[in-house]
Amino acid sequence: MDNEVQPNEVQPNEVQPLAILHVDMDAFYASVEVIKDPALRGKPVIVGGQGGRGVVTSASYEARAFGITSAMPMLRARRLCPQAVFVPNDFSAYQRYSELIRDVFISFTPVVEPMSLDEAFLDVSGALKLFGDPVTIAGAIKRDIAGLGLSCTVGVAPNKFLAKLASAAGKPDGLLVVPPDGVEAWLHPMPVRALWGVGQRTGEMLQRLGLRTIGDLAVVPRATLQRALGDAAGAHLHDLANGRDDRPVVPSQEAKSVGAEETFARDLDTLDAVVREVLRLSDRVAGRLRAKGLCGRCVTLKIRFGDFRTITRSLTSPDEIDNAAEIFEIAKALIEKVHKAERIGRSSARIRLAGVSVSSLAPGPARRQLDLLEERGSKGGWPEASDAIDRIRQRWGGDAVTPAALIDP
After folding, report:
1. 279-310: per-residue pLDDT in tens?
2. Residues 6+ away with beta carbon under 8 Å from 141
3. d(Cα 249, Cα 93) in Å, to the nearest integer?
């Protein structure tokens, strides 16, 4: 293959303008926990599941100095940094701050593509006359987010691929710019594994072919890479190695479903235990639906057994729903069907994970045709009760109101 390497045969593309931002929050979940409890500032903070199977979802930079990384088993994190402060996930708080961050983005451009709660791509090409050049806009976004008590890193580049690389290289609390005329000088010295789509196996293959840097890969003809890696993968890596990425920033689409799931510290082996957790998840989903101003009709139950076999079951309500009682009523019927088929409790049917979601969404709150034969008060009070629950939780926290069945005797 080395004998086939020739000067790059692809003609240079038209230079893309510097208009794409990738904003990535710094240790987002851990940073939100510090806002909630300022006494944690400067300490190693590790956020994640607290049970035996829990994993790290976020760690402060003080904790990262001890080798703590996301997705690390919590047991290992405790061994590496026993002096850390270990905090359970508070996704309702992370969602609230994510929405505040998104409000900052939207104040500069409507072309925002969220990738998760803590990162997004922005196309600011239509905002230059109002707010200045892209680097000025990036600095203003950083200042507005700092006003929330959080820090972020922004990559500014001609396309999404380069902007994402720039934000990773600028961590933490940085602003890194890759100008159109400086792409090759900045990109080509990087290792080939910095490219999207180059995992361990592909990276090892490229290393065997003598391709260690992105610059090495960039001068290999496209056809040669396609023969070695396949048409799609070869073309993809050739474009990225030459700094090309024509994917647009796509504003977020409406959610197709709203859900919640949980991996349990120990496999559940009784129907009662599973029903209890399904109630908890139904309550969480109902709160998320109402927070998004949505309701839905199709309830889906997801179950993962101890042997990692996973099934889903769905039922559709005749009415749009957004409250825990109605979601749970359907989810409970589904789990009872699963129990009838699988006999929960057998060694092969113990439950490792459960999830509940609602789809077939519509703008909420849920409204149903009044049934003249329906017993007065049987369902009519649920919207008012749900509103009251939401107000209490907004003021006092997500655990301020809990279904009675979830309170330990």
Report:
1. 999 999 998 888 888 889 999 999 988 887 88
2. 21, 23, 104, 105, 108, 122, 152, 154
3. 27
Instruction: Give catalytic residue positions.
Output: 119
Residues forming beta bridges with residue 123, ordered by sequence position: 20
The pLDDT value given to residue 5: 32
Which 3 state secondary structure label does DSSP give 299? strand
Q: Which residues contact 155 (CB under 8 A, 6 or more apart)?
A: 21, 22, 24, 162, 163, 164, 165, 166, 167, 168, 169, 170, 176, 178
pTM across the whole model: 0.64
CA 128 to centroid of chain Cα atoms: 29
- Quick one: tokens of 372? 């003249």
pLDDT at 81: 97
Give residue 257's identity as a one-letter amino acid code.
S
- Indicate the SS3 state at residue 253: coil
15-54: per-residue pLDDT in tens? Answer: 567 899 999 999 999 999 999 999 999 999 999 987 767 8
Residues in the chain: 409
Give the span between the Cα atoms of 379 and 183, in whole angstroms.
61
From CA 119, how far away is CA 100, in angstroms rounded? 13
C-alpha dist (Å) from residue 82 to 39, 45, 139, 231, 333: 18, 11, 37, 49, 44
